[in-house]
Design goal:
The protein has one domain: Histone deacetylase domain (Arginase, Chain A), CATH 3.40.800. By secondary structure, the protein is α/β, with parallel strands linked by helices. It is built from 4 helices and 5 strands. Bound molecules: zinc ion. Zinc ion binds next to loops.
Amino acid sequence: MGKVTIFDVDYHHGNGTQAIFYDRADVQFLSIHADPKVEFPYYLGHANERGLKEGAGYNHNYPLPHGTSWVEWAEAMEDACRSIEKFAPDVIIVSLGMDPYEKDPISKFKLKTDDFSRIGARIARLSKPTLFVMEGGYAVGDLGINCTKALSGYLDTVTIGS
Ligand SMILES: [Zn+2]
């Protein structure tokens, strides 16, 4: 049985995903999101939620404050990527929410269009087969360019199979 990492970069905590895999050691879940003390889903997504039973240690939450911009966001991503490297999954699934974007109408994070390229590039450097799954994103006019940046950042960097 293979190991799977689910890396959720959506502005909101991946509460459903966390709940499904919370007691499993073969699925690692990491989520970077707005602090649930002040944002949806409010009741889950805190840093001390680390998993249960066999899943203990395989759940990683990075709640960040309103106003978070690239430097702080990237610091959380670095920590997450180190955990992913240590876990050594067979595949990575990215919950690609585009709502950490600075112009997103419901987000209070400050990521810029080019930051999505950096996210894609960093994930590519994990060198694992990767599936990007689209999630939230409400700055409708900029969704296309931001998605393109994330995927091209990945494709310009990835070296699997080459
Ligand atoms: Zn969201």
